[in-house]
Amino acid sequence: MIAVFAALELLLLLPMSWLVGCSTSSRTARHRASYTMAFAGLIALGQIVWHTFELPWFGWSTVWLSADDPHSWVPAFSLISCLMGFTAIALSPVSETRPGTFRRILLLIAIALLFLAIRHPIALAVLWGASALVAWLELRDVKSAKPASGIAKLFAIYHFPSAFAFGLGAVLLVENHTAAGVMLVLIGIGIREAVIPLHSWFPPFVQYAPMGLVVAFFAPQLGVYAHLELLRGELPNQLAHGVASLGAITAVVAAMLGIAQTDARRALAFLAMSQTGLVAFGLDTSSSVAQIGALLTWQVIGVATAGFAMTLTSLQARRGDLSLQTPAGSFTQTPRMAVAFLFMGFASVGLPLTLGFIAEDLLVQGSVREFPALAFALIIATALNGVSVMRAFFVLFSGSAQHIGERDLMRREAGTLTVVMATLLIGGLFPGATVRGLERVTDHEEEALVEDSTPATPASSNSQDEDAADLACQFVQAPVNIWTTTGPTGRHRVAPYFDLERAIHGREIGTAVRAKWALGSPIMFHGRRYQFEQVHFHGPSTHMLDGMRYPMEMHVVNVASVKSVNDPPQYLIISVLFRNGRKNQDIDRVLNGTFKRHRTVFDPDRKHVEEYFSSEERRKYYQYRGSLAVPPYDEAVDLFVLSEPRTASPEQIAKARAPSDESGVSSWVPQGVELVE
To answer: What is the span of the domain harbouring residue 652?
Structure first.
């Protein structure tokens, strides 16, 4: 479905961008481009209607476009991207914007819309480089004053390496070289998002480039989507915490630098950098509340910053360069512009009653437990950004009671800003629907197609033990919640959860696929020798970390030989949690082998099991001893739950949850848990 609407938007924007570029005047080009973006917004609105009401037709899918995309927020964010583009075009002054500039603004928005519909890493890399190329071509063609003559060169110095790093990283990710690929993609994203210390290109870009181009290039925040699509769940804990720390540092340092600026456009640049740091911080927390806040902040920054930036450039078109050293302007003579400026500025930094306030509240609320010091830094950054907005407002609109000649907002400008302000205000006054929608999205991404469905009837068996196992699998799994914040090592609290209502009705959310293999390499634990026996999957997970349940869990089952038939079985089970994300090649080996050679014994390539312990980070795990949840409960089971979740694609998770005619281990009764380094 998303593929169809993305194609419709491209069929509109690409030909119209050529027509806009052929316009004889900037005013005509702006008029044509505004109508083009308005029609693109209507297509995006139709996409939301289709997605919301699940209307028929156009149900075919494609591999490269996310027609069955798990990110159900894509239609709404496409509409918001169209609103950003419309704001950038409708408020661009013709004095600094050529017809070719309007054409490239349309191209940048088209790339952003297609970027949201793409899932393949290499396709994302192509669009990433294309957007940088379009912006660089415009900077090269603009006839700037002498201080700005080197902006195109500076832009190329940063963004061509960014495109190269992103592209090479995408190739490495596809080839399953995860560690190197992740680092290169992070570098590419860090440059594009102007994260300190990779930010030197951004303040001159905002100061001297046409503001409409700046908004079209920066406001859609392609780096955020790339992070969600390629890196979410791939970063080890230490690296994720490092990225979150860098985001918090960027937020605070940029806010401090913004207060010291004397040029209004440079102050805007540091304000945007600070807000981008907030998003980078929220994306790498494990809290779903913080992730909802990051998603909201992402879009609020785009809309509010676009409105704030274009209001500022409208004021600059009337007065010339705007200095923050000497008070100027008159609030009483330009009240609509002053109110729009103040509202957009406060919405950018989280003004109460706006959607930005809800976004940043969720961001801080969700991250304070995991990063208490960094969450406090976010509060400081927000306060400093508020000071910057108030300082700019007083300097630009309280200099004189006399009218100095500039006009207040014209009807075109007032209408555009009214739409932007209404979007932010209505979202802030009625945030419930938006937050609940994003909550469902994050749950969907974490539980990846988990449904409440009655499974196929397990195969019959004459063995009482197998009948008991089959009966146990008809009950919902009892997830064990491991609290990780009680200390880096030592004993941890464990909380079992039982869903009695589901158990009464005999619903099953349990093992879907089990691969039983020949005995493999031994594992030694407490002087006992365990042989590798099988791998099976649970969906959703039988363990939770800090209350977060994952869409899939893999158990690597090892069994110890017993001395006599009267001794209870001894199991050692390694548990690997999976979150929704990039396709996992190792899981494919298990799933494909399982389905091709079902109910047979075969020797697997054991490298895919050992790879989960290939780094120091992945050797950290939570360990406890329990028993099977199947009578007579006398088995000894040592559980090792890896602390670092892995990723698997929604298709892999759905396949692993497909009904199977074999039963497996269901759950364990915990007796204590500890983090083992």
So the answer is: 464-676
